[in-house]
Design a protein that fits this description.
Hypothetical protein af1432, 13% strand, alpha/beta, Rossmann fold, 7-stranded mixed sheet
Length: 811
């Protein structure tokens, strides 16, 4: 019997400090352990959990086969960076394509040993696609397979095959594949790789024809799950950072928190309703048919949906573990950064209050582009910079709070960096809060993708909103409502009345109306919400010039740097003897938790009107109804809402409002919202969704990602990010930024920037290039307003100053 080999017997390297055998073994083992932790439902494809794990393992041990060439070994062991860069640009030093062909060969051998090979016939091609792009972004499958037509490409493979260290590779794979009933002979592969390439090409058209005919999401989800497992395992081994702890979170965590905080009392109507909703939703967990995986919580704004949905998810998580052996993460996703920080703080307070020992990065994680780059484990191991970013981007936590952009641009993506966390969504409980903000043109697309996650990857979804869009239609039983008495709760809330005036008026006409009202109602807090920054600035300056006594003025928009914006929101929330007059753009609708007496809102879509109504008498603390006034404002060209919202949605809103009385009460809002979304669903075009779905179903990854945009730039002009050196802290941060930019090593630059990123972004605004007269600092790709010029370009109260004299120049 031959002696068992160890990494000491091998000399090929995968990385400068790592032996290839060790790396392949680690990636294969991490891939199989990740796969085995998942409970998938892929029987339709002839794939049980054991086969899926073995496929994942084989992809893992084959992905760097091409590093066994003399070319790659010369490249990886080269110590001169300049020489190494020049070698990297030569195709014979690349390892992706030859590794992909080898992966196809090994998967074909493995699947040939199974009884029902036919149902798995396209898996080797999927393995080829995954390995070919494990260091880049996915391309369209047809293009990737067609690359083997190119004779120049095959001649590069000829050179690589001749330079393979065959003896050592044979020894490596004999050991790695010992338990897989596969006896790979690298010599046979070297003789047959051209015929294997021809076979891949031959099957290409049949594979593409099959995908086009079937038109379902299953192969997309399988491909990206396997890809995600591979690149995550690969990056973990390359970085030597692996955090994998299973931390128990009590399903009664929120129950205990509510008792601790005294939220159980029903001293007023709103608390009574919040507790009734909480009880109804959380007690439903035990009676649920958990074969249904798509749920909704449709409740009025301000009725405690954050705590309710978290508690429901924790209880569902416990039940899934007990009954289905599913270890579910909770992914809480929201559309706006302001409410992400707000909801994260709520979750943090829950854990801190009830179970402070579990307050760590591997329990609760916040992921968005402005979040702190810091990760601490329960064992008090701390990570910063690139290591911390690596853990955050891998969603290494039990509860993840993140943006819609992060979530939806992961499930609909071709990007390596985004897709690394794709596999974590399998078996998770995903809470989608404020789902009404998802563009209606993507409803069908997301319906199909989410249905696929639920059916094949056993992912659970909870749609949470006061205004439930018809992504899933309850009339067809596509979504299970957890709040059976929602009509009752909307009736019990009687906080506001809405008055709608659809006759367009100019800003000057509007000023006359609001001047008389703010002067007469001196004890009332006012909120004015506009569709454009410039209209909001015009009215704010007008109201400020009235110099009303006993009044504090606040302005909110993206025209102000985030640091000042957050300070303004904090001041608005503080109790004051003076009444508050707040002027804002629609950013106030993004879950900003404020409470006023009277709202004026420039015309918008129904969901936006509903959101702004939630800022009026929010906590039912007044003895009278709050007043929400909807008006239509215009300039010389057109109505302001035409600059922001789609004509289709605006027209549907007008249809609904014209069918309603001119005064609307809160109990009417549920009908109003349902009527609106029904009109949108019944009359909107699904062409864009259908086209994107065809890209998904035919594995056209690159085309898909270039066409999918969850957030569209509606302004129609080129913008520039500008750093505003607004205070002494900003001066120091800018110095650090310039120092970072001067570093030659890109990894050093990235590490340095991550250390200042959060504070740096607190001073960034985005403005139109046509409104920004300063020259951009050379090679920085960012605008800059220096401290000594700040008074000319930035007002701390209202933000960027648009009206500038032509003689003013930046230093």
């Amino acid at each position: 019997m031959e002696k068992e080999l160890s990494s000491c017997d091998f000399h090929l390297h995968s990385h400068p400090e790592k032996i290839l055998f060790e790396h392949l073994s680690n990636v294969g083992n991490k891939s199989i352990s990740t796969s085995e932790s998942k409970k998938l439902s892929l029987d339709k494809f002839g794939i049980d959990d054991n086969i899926f794990s073995n496929i994942s393992f084989l992809i893992g041990v084959c992905h760097d086969f091409g590093k066994g060439t003399k070319y790659f070994q010369r490249y990886i062991l080269e110590t001169d960076p300049a020489i190494q860069r020049s070698l990297k640009n030569k195709k014979e030093y690349h390892h992706g394509l030859i590794s992909a062909i080898f992966t196809y060969y090994i998967l074909k051998k493995y699947l040939g040993s199974l009884c029902d090979e036919r149902s798995l016939e396209f898996i080797p091609a999927i393995g080829y696609l995954i390995v070919k792009r494990h260091h880049g972004n996915f391309q369209d499958a047809d293009d990737e397979l067609a690359e083997l037509i190119n004779e120049d490409t095959l001649e590069i493979i000829d050179l690589q095959v001749k330079s393979l260290e065959v003896d050592e590779l044979n020894s490596i794979y004999e050991q790695l594949l010992e338990d897989c009933a596969i006896s790979p002979d690298i010599n046979i592969f070297c003789n047959d790789y051209r015929s294997i390439s021809k076979e891949i090409l031959k099957n290409r058209r049949r594979f593409m024809k099959f995908l086009k005919k079937k038109q379902f999401t299953g192969y997309y989800l399988i491909t990206l799950t396997l890809y995600s497992i591979l690149i995550n395992s690969d990056k973990i081994d390359a970085s030597s950072i692996d955090i994998s702890s299973e931390i128990e979170i009590s399903p009664e965590l929120v129950d205990m928190y509510k008792v601790e905080k005294g939220f159980q009392n029903n001293e007023n109507t709103i608390n009574k309703v919040r507790n009734e909703i909480y009880k109804e939703v959380t007690e439903s967990v035990e009676k649920l048919d958990i074969n249904n995986k798509i749920y909704s919580i449709s409740v009025p704004t301000g009725s405690g949906k954050t705590l309710t949905s978290l508690s429901f998810a924790l209880k569902l998580k416990a039940r899934l573990k007990e009954e289905k052996r599913i270890k579910a993460k909770i992914i809480y996703s929201l559309p706006f950064l302001s409410i992400i920080d707000q909801n994260y703080d709520v979750f943090e307070d829950v854990i801190k209050t009830v179970d402070s020992e579990n307050l760590s990065g591997d329990v609760l994680l916040k992921h968005h582009h402005l979040a702190d780059i810091f990760y601490r484990t329960q064992d008090d191991e701390e990570f910063e910079g690139l290591k911390s970013l690596f853990l955050i981007e891998g969603w290494n936590s039990e509860i993840i709070v993140t943006t819609f952009v992060q979530f939806f641009h992961t499930i609909v993506s071709n990007k390596n960096r985004s897709l690394r966390k794709f596999h974590t969504i399998a078996n998770s409980i995903v809470i989608l809060d404020e789902v009404q903000s998802i563009p209606h043109k993507y409803w069908l697309l997301l319906n199909q993708v989410i249905s696929g996650f639920a059916e094949y990857l056993n992912t659970y979804f909870i749609f949470v909103t006061a205004t439930q869009p018809l992504i899933f239609d309850p009339e067809y039983g596509a979504i299970a409502e957890l709040v059976k008495n929602k009509e009752k709760y909307f009736r019990e809330f009687d906080r506001v009345k809405l008055e709608i005036n659809l006759n367009p008026m100019s800003l000057d006409e509007f000023k006359d109306i609001i001047e008389s009202e703010v002067k007469e109602k001196t004890d009332k807090d006012f909120l004015f919400v506009f569709n454009t920054i410039k209209s909001s600035l015009t009215v704010f300056k007008y109201l400020k010039d009235l110099k009303l006594k006993n009044s504090d003025y606040y302005y909110l928009s993206t025209n102000i740097i985030p640091k000042d914006r957050l300070n303004n929101i904090k001041k608005i929330k503080e109790k004051s003897e003076k009444r508050k007059i707040i002027v804002s753009t629609q950013l106030i609708e993004a879950g900003v938790d404020i409470d006023v007496d009277i709202v004026y809102r420039d015309f918008a879509t129904i969901d936006s009107i509903n959101q702004v109504s939630g800022r009026c008498n929010r906590n039912s603390s007044k003895s009278y109804r709050g007043q929400v006034n909807i008006v239509v404002l215009k300039d010389d060209r057109k109505e302001f809402h035409r600059y922001i919202y789609s004509s289709f949605l605006i027209d549907k809103t007008k249809e609904v409002l014209e069918e309603s009385p001119s005064v609307i009460y809160e109990e009417d809002l549920l009908f109003l919202n349902n009527n609106y979304f029904r009109k949108v669903k019944d009359t909107s075009s699904e062409d864009e969704s259908k086209e994107l779905l065809s890209y998904i179903n035919e594995l056209k990854f690159k085309t898909l990602t270039s066409d999918f945009r969850l957030i569209e730039d509606k302004v129609g002009y080129e913008k520039i990010d500008v750093f505003v050196e607004n205070d002494n802290e900003a001066v120091e941060i800018w110095k650090e930024y310039l120092l970072m930019k001067s570093l030659k090593n890109p990894l050093d630059r990235k590490e340095k920037f991550l250390a200042i990123r959060k504070k740096f972004n607190e001073y960034i605004i985005s403005v139109s290039k046509k409104d920004f007269p300063c020259e951009e600092p050379e090679d920085l790709n960012i605008g800059y307003i220096p401290f000594e010029q700040i008074k000319h370009y930035y007002d701390p109260e209202t933000g960027f100053i648009f009206e500038l004299k032509s003689t003013m120049m930046c230093d």
